[in-house]
Design goal:
Blueprint: E1 13-23, E2 32-42, E3 46-50, H1 57-65, E4 74-82, E5 85-86, H2 92-101, E6 103-106, H3 110-113, H4 120-131, H5 136-149, H6 155-159, H7 168-180, E7 186-190, H8 198-215, E8 218-223, H9 226-232, E9 235-240, E10 243-249, H10 250-255, H11 260-268, E11 285-296, E12 310-321, E13 325-329, H12 336-344, E14 351-356, E15 359-360, H13 366-373, E16 376-379, H14 393-403, H15 408-421, H16 438-450, E17 456-460, H17 468-485, E18 488-493, H18 496-502, E19 505-510, E20 513-519, H19 520-525, H20 530-537
Parallel strand pairs: 3-8, 3-9, 6-7, 7-8, 13-18, 13-19, 16-17, 17-18
Antiparallel strand pairs: 1-2, 1-4, 4-5, 9-10, 11-12, 11-14, 14-15, 19-20
Helix pairs in contact: 4-5, 4-7, 5-7, 7-8, 14-15, 14-16, 15-16, 16-17
Length: about 550
């Protein structure tokens, strides 16, 4: 009698995790990263694993692949059966073979995952060269076919390109092509769309669903974005503190979650129902940008050849009314950040005016700009990168005021007041940034901005790197402080849910130009420009509203 086949049928799970427990080092804040976790994934199914940072999602994924940093983090109990074989019991050589051929991984940041010194076609070819007997010509045809499958334009050109020559969406498509190269039974996608624009995100999600249906692949999709879950998931598993809280088909979990924690996560997702502004007209503008332009490059070389410049901002006019919040929305490369850098004085515009509280600051020297710098402050996207890791929180917040002549003890007292205002303990002044969570570090960044008594806050994607529940807390805090202190805010984002949550007005930017402006309610109800309509149509989970 022949041995029974271990290959899965459509009904049998491709992956079955039973009672998985992963221990953490003794100095950790809890004993287990994952505790008694049991989930299954079947062929042709997308399972979304949802949870906040620290919930154990990524540790679970690394356990499947045998990539835990042992011996400090190690599996202490359970079974991970892949196609009938327990991956926790196989020899290292067998695990490497499974990991390279039957299970693939798509990472969150393709620019980090791809080798910057190697053309992308060669990187995909390397997978085939190591794991197949195909000839060089056959491998090239296979790579070009994969690039065509993932809808990359001009596959031959992409094949000969380096990662930095491709857009973020194109790099992620290359990663998907690499993951599909050996036709795996399981793809683990770890936040693969978090860093992408909304339109590119929609394309990648649609592509994954298309390819998954075409190849019958099982997909384990790790995310904290319930819009993505609504868009792509067949089933959902919710994790918290290493434990499985709830699981089931996506529709019931999204629309009628059983567990309070899941209900809280769903409730924290910003709604697409826009806020309505105060009907009173505001003629007073704290910021008025007039016909601003900024071009990079375009200089003549020593041979007299003039390079073509990149028009990052092209004749942009924009106002931020006093006490109001305006969202600046657009994809990467649209010119949003360049416009913000010009407003705060980090870039010199080529032409145009920047009226800050009635004073034109465009073109001022650093010395001449100094008296106006405190009027406009920025809250940055990455709170950890924007805080000096060697300085205590009190010094970080007090630095600006002390440079303006405020005595150090007075500035430190003000820092304590501001920490209390943003929801942190006053004693935090003596701690360092690494001792705080991401959301707490963003609160410190907000306190630092407020320490300068600004009239305008420029928030550059301040919640894109945060979990959905922390994101809501920070958004609500910014809104409360704006109303309490009478601040104006220019909120840069690519997330239209965020724009609807905190901003009364929206300006849509594309290729350096403002293509549409108006109240959030009007633009959401009746967008006039085709690009705005495309952005709204691309919002993940648009048809799902809690």
């Amino acid at each position: 009698m022949s041995a029974p086949s271990t290959q899965p049928t459509d009904a049998a799970p491709v992956l079955s995790i039973d009672g998985l427990t992963v221990a953490l080092p003794a100095w950790s804040d809890r004993p287990h990263a994952v505790e008694n976790l049991s989930i299954q994934i079947r062929r042709n199914e997308v399972l979304c694993v949802v949870g906040e940072s620290g919930s154990g999602k990524s540790v679970m994924a690394k356990s499947i692949l045998g990539l835990l940093p042992a011996p400090h983090v190690r599996v202490t109990a359970g079974r991970i059966a892949f196609e009938g074989e327990d991956l926790l019991q196989v020899a290292p050589e067998r695990l490497r073979a499974v990991r390279s051929g039957r299970i693939s991984m798509i990472f969150q940041e393709p620019m980090v995952a791809l080798n910057p010194l190697m053309k992308v076609g060669r990187q995909v070819d390397e997978v085939l060269q190591v794991h197949t007997d195909l000839s060089a010509r056959a491998r090239r045809e296979r790579v070009l076919g994969l690039f065509d499958d993932v809808h990359l334009p001009e596959p031959a050109r992409i094949h000969g390109s380096y990662p930095h020559q491709l857009s973020g969406g194109q790099r992620q498509r290359v990663m998907i092509a690499m993951a599909l190269a050996l036709e795996p039974a399981l793809i683990i996608a770890d936040e693969p769309t978090t860093a992408l624009d909304v339109t590119t995100q929609a394309q990648i999600l649609s592509l994954l669903k298309e390819l998954q249906g075409k190849h019958g692949t099982a997909v384990l999709f790790i995310t904290h974005d319930f819009g993505v879950v609504a868009e792509i998931a067949d089933r959902v598993a919710v994790m918290r503190h290493g434990r499985l809280i709830e699981q089931g088909d996506s529709a019931p979990v999204l629309r009628a979650p059983r567990e309070p924690y899941t209900r809280d996560l769903v409730a924290a997702v910003p709604s697409l129902i826009p806020r309505h502004p105060d009907p009173a007209a505001v003629d007073d503008h704290v910021l008025a940008v007039r016909a601003l332009s900024k071009t990079y490059g375009g200089r003549s070389s020593f041979l007299g050849v003039r390079s073509r410049g990149v028009e990052a901002v092209r004749s942009v006019s924009l106002e931020v009314p006093r006490g109001r919040s305006v969202a600046l929305v657009g994809e990467s490369g649209s010119g949003k950040s360049t416009l913000a850098r010009c407003i705060v004085g980090l870039e010199q515009p080529d032409s145009g005016a920047i009226l800050l509280d009635g004073q034109d600051i465009a073109g001022l020297s650093r010395a001449a700009l100094r008296p106006y710098r405190h009027l406009v402050q920025m809250v940055f996207q990455d709170p950890f990168a924007s805080l000096n890791p060697r300085q205590r929180v009190g010094d970080i917040i007090a630095l600006g005021p002390t440079l303006r002549g405020v005595p150090r003890d007075v500035a430190w007292d003000r820092a304590r007041e501001l920490l209390d205002m943003v929801g942190l303990q006053r004693e935090a002044v003596g701690r360092f940034p690494h001792e705080f969570s991401g959301g707490q570090r963003q609160r410190i960044g907000i306190a630092r901005a407020l320490a300068m008594d600004p009239k305008l806050i420029i928030a550059d994607e301040p919640v894109s790197a945060l979990d959905v529940s922390v994101q809501k807390q920070v958004l609500d805090l910014l809104d409360e402080l704006r109303l309490e202190l009478g601040l104006s805010m220019l909120f840069i984002t690519h997330d239209l849910r965020v724009a609807a949550h905190v901003c009364e007005e929206i300006a849509v930017m594309r290729r350096g130009e403002i293509v549409e402006r108006g109240s959030t309610a009007r633009i959401f109800a009746a967008p006039a420009h085709e690009y705005t309509r495309a952005l709204l149509d691309s919002v993940p989970g648009k048809g799902w509203e809690h």
